[in-house]
Amino acid sequence: MSAPPLVPARMPVADVIRVGGHGLRSRPLRVFLSALGIAIGIAAMVGVMGISASSTHELDRRLSSFGTNLLTVTAEPESHLPTTAVSMIGALPAVDTVSAVGRTGARVYRNDHIPTERTGGIVVYAARTDLPTVVGARTVAGSWLTDAYTAYPAVVLGWTAARSLAVYETGPGQLVWLGGRWFTVVGILAPNDLLTDLDYGAFVGWPVAERELGFDGYPTTVYTRPQQSAVTGVQPLLGAAANPENPGEATVSRPSEVLKAQLETRRTLNALLLGLGAVALLVGGIGVANTMVISVLERRSEIGLRRSLGATRGQIRTQFLAEALLLSLLGGAGGVALGIGITAAFAATQGWAAVVPPWAMAGGMAATLLIGGLAGFYPAVRAARLPPTEALANP
Amino acid sequence: MTTPVVELSGVSKRYGDVLALDDADLRIERGELLAVVGPSGSGKSTLLHIMGTLDRPTTGTLHIDGYDVGALSDRELSVLRARAIGFVFQQFHLARGVPAIDIVADGLLYTGRSRAHRRQAAEQALHRVGLGHRMKHLPHQLSGGEQQRVAIARAVLGDPPLLMADEPTGALDSHSGETVMALLRDLNDAGTTIVVITHDRDIAASLPRQVRLKDGKIISGVRA
């Protein structure tokens, strides 16, 4: 027979998308609702990863500004380190800088009318003038204690201490009631994320503390920065160097490690939230599958018509699969946008830079495609298997 | 001698215990316009489905446009429908919310023609059925007769050798029905082979050839 062979024509991708999108355009509300299910799941996952990445980014930023080589040696509560601690630690190999504070028993108040029990949790420290260079503190107002100030009633407040005392400016007029006499606030420190204790501190010069506040002159915390490569080598030696007679009475810690450990705990929470996001995504996928099954049932006559126009089973299958993929992609794109929005909003409230890792966005879209493919597969196969006569019999 | 457009020999179709079509022989030549007429349940729809290759005979052989349908796969049958057979249904089957020109253009969707070509052909086809002024109209903006003419334009878009019309006037008032029948006659004059399935004796009588069905058997009109 001379008749030409019957080979199906390939459908261009543009036609596949157009035909797949046809079913979506005609039912916008249903499409919106089932895409919303996917969007919530993706938004949750992208949001969690975005917030996690933003906080890691923030941590890195802080660590790079404070460094990870800071070590602290703290005396047990109600005790102190020997006066030799600073010089002993300073004498250790690879230790460049060392400084110290000594806790005084003094209290600080906004003025002399405040009841004595309302201390606001503020601790008054005698501080060495080289403290900021070691701990990486900077002032947001005024300046740190200089040698000229240390013999006079001048105080530098930590960030939180200044807030709770309602002191926002520095200078001759800014007085606080400290240890039973007026001190002038000469500086306010920026928040210190690595050493949050300092935020609650009020710092006065060593000599004035000894003279006016009954300070015994013993340091309670020593701060030191060994060379980066020597940190782990120096850390075990610090206890003995600070307090040779009772090395166990001094607690040695590395604040950057503490910060990292806090982040690790947050990671556990993130894993939980990611799991919740995955559940939401799964439910969203089931929503898409449900929508597609209903769509196939409702559109039997369309399927019949398309078969009569010459669509092969494969082309019907492709149409419904494309529809499911478009539906979930719609949800995925919305979810990624929403996740970015959540991250940006959360980061803004924390004062962080918003960071959404590209792999999270790509992963979100990939998960969406996977879900759409799985959800659309069975309905598409059902649509393709529908005999044309049966499809046309039910308008 | 040209090959007939449709040739059934000894075709039967059985659904469970019911013999819907019983040993049917039918030959339709190119350019014919014929009615398949009979009461409901007489096997008209079964004959339509089999001639339209939407369903396969239980026994017997069927040739459409020279192809032996029994030897073709489902894929190949789909291609045959895309190229050789146009369908017009009683319920029009027009997609909601889609302009007439795009509905008609979908008549060539599965033939591999470009979209631009399809739309251009659709424009011509709409002019041909007298709806050149209704290109952008949506189905619900058209009267029943106009909707059926849109469906006819879609069916004849690729100039198929065979047009199957299943109760094309069944859902229309008599005036619209006459317009649609007049259109089918025009298309036949232009060379399209047309089979009209109907239970309406008047419509059947107005066509050059009638194939009468009763209880699954062709009782007259076997040969023109």
TrEMBL record, chain A:
Transmembrane segments: 31-53, 272-297, 324-347, 359-378
Organism field: Actinoplanes flavus
Main location as per UniProt: membrane
Domain of life: Bacteria
Protein name from the UniProt record: ABC transporter permease
Annotated InterPro entries: ABC3_permease_C, MacB_PCD, Macrolide_Exporter_MacB
Family to which this protein belongs: Belongs to the ABC-4 integral membrane protein family.
Location of this chain's protein in the cell: Cell membrane
Domain called MacB-like periplasmic core: residue spans: 32-225
UniProt KW keywords: Cell membrane, Membrane, Transmembrane, Transmembrane helix
Ranges where the ABC3 transporter permease C-terminal domain occurs: 276-388
Its membrane topology: Multi-pass membrane protein
From TrEMBL, chain B:
Domain ABC transporter: 6-224
Keyword terms of this UniProt record: ATP-binding, Nucleotide-binding, Transport
A GO term, aspect molecular function: ATP binding
Classification via Pfam families: ABC_tran
UniProt keyword Phosphoprotein, yes or no: no
SUPFAM superfamilies: P-loop containing nucleoside triphosphate hydrolases
SMART domains, per the entry: AAA
Domain of life, per lineage: Bacteria
Stored InterPro entries: AAA+_ATPase, ABC_transporter-like_ATP-bd, ABC_transporter-like_CS, ABC_transpr_LolD-like, MacB-like_ATP-bd, P-loop_NTPase
Protein name according to UniProt: ABC transporter ATP-binding protein
Lineage: Bacteria, Bacillati, Actinomycetota, Actinomycetes, Micromonosporales
